[in-house]
Amino acid sequence: MDYVIPEKSLRQQATRDRITHLSTGIAIRRNGTLLLVRREPGDFLGGSWELPGGGIDEGETFEQAIRRELLEETGLTVTKIVGMFAGFDYSTDVKPKVRQFNFIVTVAPSKVTLSEEHDTYIWVTLEDLPKLKLNSAMNRCAHEVFRSMPYNNAV
Hints:
Layout: H1 7-16, E1 21-27, E2 29-30, E3 33-39, E4 49-50, H2 62-74, E5 78-90, E6 98-107, E7 118-124, H3 136-148
Parallel strand pairs: 1-6
Antiparallel strand pairs: 2-3, 3-4, 3-7, 5-6
């Protein structure tokens, strides 16, 4: 059975918390590893590793944003949304209060093809995480993926 995103309640809670923007983080596991992408050096949090993902556009559902963002950033196509795990709030120079919702997906077998937003990607193990430049929220998310997601998906 497919995971049903509790979109209405997530949006209501974000509104109550005065969140100004919504975004997605997308976790993909393969053979005990997790896909991370590295932000371009001149971008917000440049040089940091993160889950693929991005903003949920006006009028877009969470599922539509997950599918669009993953395809745009990695060239990968979502086959199934498996679940959701802990997200976090953050701010940028132009977005005062953003809430990132994190999802676990499976993808169709394909080669990773990055957009201009990221300069490289890596499949990491839990043991690799301390060696990478991750902000504290993304570090927590990556650890959560390894704790909560035994599912492997071949890419």
